[in-house]
Amino acid sequence: MAKDIIFGTDGWRGRIAEDYTFENVRRVAQGFAHYLINEGIAENGVVIGYDTRFHSENFSAAVAEVLAGNGIHAYLTDGPTPTPVISYAAVARKAAGAVNITASHNPPEDNGFKVRDAQGGAIAPEGLQQIEAAIPASEDDVKRMDLEEAKNKGLVELFDAAPDYITHLDDLIDLQPIKDAGLKVLVDPMWGNGAGWFPRLLAGGKTTVTEIHNTRNPLFPEMKRPEPIPPNVDAGLRTTLEQKADVLLITDGDADRVGLGDEKGAFVDQLRVFGLLAYYFLEVRGERGPIVKTLSTTTMLNKLGAMYDVPVYETGVGFKFVAPKMLETDALIGGEESGGYAFRGNVPERDGILGGLYLLDMMVKLGKTPTQLIEWLFDKVGAHYYDRIDTLFEGDRAKRMQRLADAQPETIGGLKVTGKDMTDGFQFHLEDGGWLLVRFSGTEPKIRVYTETTHGDQVQAILEDGLRIAGLK
Question: Among 27, 141, 352, 363, which residue's Cβ finds the most Cβ atoms within 10 Å?
Answer without folding.
Answer: 352
